[in-house]
Amino acid sequence: MAGNNIIVVFDFDKTIIECDSDYWVVQQMGATKLFHQLLFTIPYFNTIMRKMMKKLHKQGKSIDEIVEVLKQIPIHPRVIPAIKAAHALGCDLRIISDANMFSIETMLKHFGVREYFSEINTNPSFVDEKGTLIIEPFHNFRNSSHGCTTNTCSPNMCKGLVIERIKACDEGKNKRIIYVGDGRNDYCPSLKLKENDFAMPKKNFPLWDLICSNPLLIKAKIHEWSNGDEFEKVLLRLINSICSGDDIKSVLSSADFIRPNHQVVPVSRYRWDKDPWSSDDD
Question: Does 256 participate in catalysis according to the annotation?
């Protein structure tokens, strides 16, 4: 197939879907007050959601109710056709997300595209014998740090390490990567891309702001998008350009990123300096 030398890596929350899947569950379950109480002491979604799931189960919320909530999550109508088109062109589709496996697989199956993805890198999760959704960290930082020094990765996941592993494995060698994301934890993997790769940051989201702070640090060609329509158009244009051998240069030069009155957020603003597991109770 024409796209068999391309790996497309997607973030999930606010990239494939329109919102944060963890917070969507919290809102739809009527648990925002409890969530914000935990947020005062544990500012990490992964750990908060671990606690939230246990507390929701104690309140009588079932796993079936969580599934139904996840099936109602908003998604732009052009995102799924874009995923199907990229797969039909022969691209290897993967996900790197700081959500959790149960939620992502539930939604992808509901959208009818689970089989289109060869790999999902996210926080492990499972339903225990009591019917509680248990969420674990992708990287067990209680034992050791993942060692990332960008200050944009959460302690439970460094997406940049996943990109390095993909590039190093046999199926990733000599392939070109298109990375699609929006959040601050998508900055580290964007730094790992090479000159023949492509970064697709969602405009006016944290990844975009971080790139704007110093665009010369990104070696990949940069192509922004703002909504599902642009998501589809930009992604398929890049895939088709690679397949045809007619590479598209970055649509923006370095100077284009820094505009008058455009506020950028320095990398140092994003720090993860508290152990979220220090008060991990039931």
Answer: no
